[in-house]
Amino acid sequence: MSDSELEEVFKSFCAFGAGSKDTTAAMDNAKFGKLFRDLKLYDKKFTSTDTDIIFNRPEVKSKTERKINFSQFKKALELCAEKKYGSKGDVQKLIDKIVAGKGPGTSGATKAVKTGGVDRLTDTSKYTGSHKERFDESGKGKGLEGRKDFDEKASAGYVGGYQGKDTYDKTH
């Protein structure tokens, strides 16, 4: 496997969860751990604690740095291979597993549920009262227009159905 394939995997994990403004190819400790977790490289001998320790070793990065670049990443992989397989010479075995694996995943992310009572609660056509005013015919929310009452009666301090505005002084 070539360095370019490994670098592509490195960049994909660096970019995972980063905003569009963050274009640097640098990996923090959380994404370093995510790489090993997503590719199922942990076992009883090699754990997430080991990756945390290796990520912060002085051979990999200085204490003031928060992220590592690709060359520091390769050095960290050597140390991980030594911990996992017993020698730094087995780094190619680890690299092959990383390159053969897929990119970052979102396993465990919450998915929308449409069963049981939830289906009924999310159907905007069944809403009544003031709640039905919050959505248009297609079921899309109106935003502030649907939540605010812009009626002049409401701003004058009268309740919605009151018909006798300014009649109190005349009758009393």
UniProtKB/TrEMBL annotation:
GO terms for cellular component: microtubule. It comes from the Eukaryota. InterPro entries: EF-hand-dom_pair, TPP/p25. GO terms for molecular function: tubulin binding. Residues 120-148 are annotated as: Disordered. Residues 130-148 have a biased composition (Basic and acidic residues). GO terms for biological process: microtubule bundle formation; microtubule polymerization; positive regulation of protein polymerization. Pfam families: p25-alpha (PF05517). Belongs to the TPPP family. This is Tubulin polymerization-promoting protein family member 2-like. It comes from Acanthaster planci (Crown-of-thorns starfish).
